[in-house]
Amino acid sequence: KVVAVIMVGGPTKGTRFRPLSFNIPEPLFPLAGQPMVQHPISSCKRIPNLAQIYLIGFYEEREFTLYVSSISNELKVPVRYLREDKPHGSAGGLYYFRDLIMEDNPSHIFLLNCDVCCSFPLPDMLGDYLLSLLNMLCSLYFILACTNCNGFISPFPFAEAHRRYGGMGTILVIKVSAESANQFGELVADQITNELLHYTEKPETFVSDRINCGVYIFTPDIFTAIQGVSTQRKDRANLRRVSSFEALQSATKTASTDFVRLDQDILSPLAGKKQLYTYETLDFWEQIKTPGMSLKCSALYLAQFRFTSPHLLASGDGTKSAKIVGDVYVHPSAKVHPTAKIGPNVSISANARIGAGVRLISCIILDDVEIKENAVVIHAIVGWKSSIGKWSRVQASAEPSSASDDAEGDYNAKLGITILGEAVTVEDEVVVINSIVLPNKILNVSVQEEIIL
Ligand code: GDD
């Protein structure tokens, strides 16, 4: 059996997602019409012999109760939310629930970060058991029949995955631009064996353009590795306690011995020890830390629907339908006027009302929004219950803003996006460009490059 664990983090991690994280935990924010966490959950469904999916986080239990019960029913796979009493780190959180996770006696545990957007090639990472066996027999034959043993090329490269590597874990890896690599865990792998040789988390100087995608498969030995880190820390803390000067410091350190980060505390020290391997994806991959990135990722998932779930995309067929351009999702309860023109990259959530002559391009329209006649929304996120007046424009500027890049908050402005929080009213004929508007505001004058508090 196999289980999957998705790390959803908690409210303190969601600050960059404001103002959208005010009323919904970031993992439940809709991308392409489905909660962010549903994309990895749906991918887990493709894993053979999947027994359970656990979401581990430190959000309040009630925030996930409804969602996990409805998604369990829909996918016919048990999904459970497990709440940590405090953040234990990306590996500590997994370890905290080890007894529950091991209840099904799984041979493998998939571990997924919630805030990444990709095709989650999970069954490929695990590898096909029979092909692995064939590959092994072929390599054995090659070694016996040939003197140059390094020349073996696998006849079934698809099987070059976790089962064949035989290590404790396999990490999904992607090649990114050298300039962006330092925002992630950079790693070096052996080109022939795929063994992880070196790992540095967000290094200051360039190490490699191959990065950690935050998607892993482990054997249950991962728990022993995490326990090893905690034990080492406790021992060190006990030693320190001997010194009276350090007594106070020691108390603090003991309290945090169960906080273990997967990247720095586990992957880095285990690199080069024949325990960890890599699996490189050539598909799409992005990290979703800001609303701006959620718009980009919504587009990626909509494009993926063309192959995985075409029935979810609006077709624009029929005389009563609006004109649809490119990939668009419209919730069945939303009402879109036939003279509106929608797309590409638009997702419209439940009970939204889109009026006559409205033009929507690259945007996420959340539940209960009303967009009145002839309004235009381009490259924007419109919060729940907001209303946009007739002939108004809510958009990003044509050119990305030149705002300074030192603060995290400027990231959205740099990307060029407008975000309206919950229940914002934009009155008729008002233009809102590259701005972030906090909930419950009424805009009766046009604004540009502003944060309306
Ligand atoms: N349950 C729980 N408890 N989840 C946590 C905790 C915790 O205490 N801390 C972090 N997480 C979750 C986050 O929600 C996220 O899904 C994942 O664990 C990793 O978060 P971080 O530890 O904050 O790392 P990061 O997102 O900055 O970078 C990691 O992911 C990148 C890929 O997106 C690193 O592993 C990078 O190397 C990697 O490139």
What topology emerges from the helices and strands here?
Blueprint lengths: L1 E8 L20 E2 L2 E2 L2 H7 L5 E8 L4 H14 L3 E5 L5 H8 L1 H4 L6 E6 L2 E3 L3 H5 L2 H17 L16 H4 L3 E7 L9 E5 L6 E6 L8 E9 L2 H21 L5 H9 L6 H9 L5 E5 L4 E3 L3 H18 L14 E2 L3 E3 L4 E2 L4 E2 L3 E3 L4 E2 L4 E7 L4 E2 L4 E7 L4 E2 L4 E3 L14 H6 L2 E3 L4 E2 L4 E3 L2 E2 L4 E2 L3 E2 L2 E2 L1
Helix pairs in contact: 8-9
The site of guanosine-5'-diphosphate-alpha-D-mannose (GDD) has 27 residues, from strand 1, strand 4, helix 3 and strand 11.
Tell me about this structure:
This protein has 453 residues and is α/β, with parallel strands linked by helices. 27% of the residues lie in helices and 26% in strands. The strands form 6 sheets. Strands 14, 15, 17, 18, 20, 22, 24, 25, 27, 28, 30 and 31 form a 12-stranded parallel beta sheet that branches. Helix 8 runs antiparallel to helix 9. The N and C termini lie far apart (51 Å). Bound molecules: guanosine-5'-diphosphate-alpha-D-mannose (GDD). Guanosine-5'-diphosphate-alpha-D-mannose (GDD) binds next to strand 1, strand 4, helix 3 and strand 11. The site of guanosine-5'-diphosphate-alpha-D-mannose has 27 residues, from strand 1, strand 4, helix 3 and strand 11. Belongs to the transferase hexapeptide repeat family.
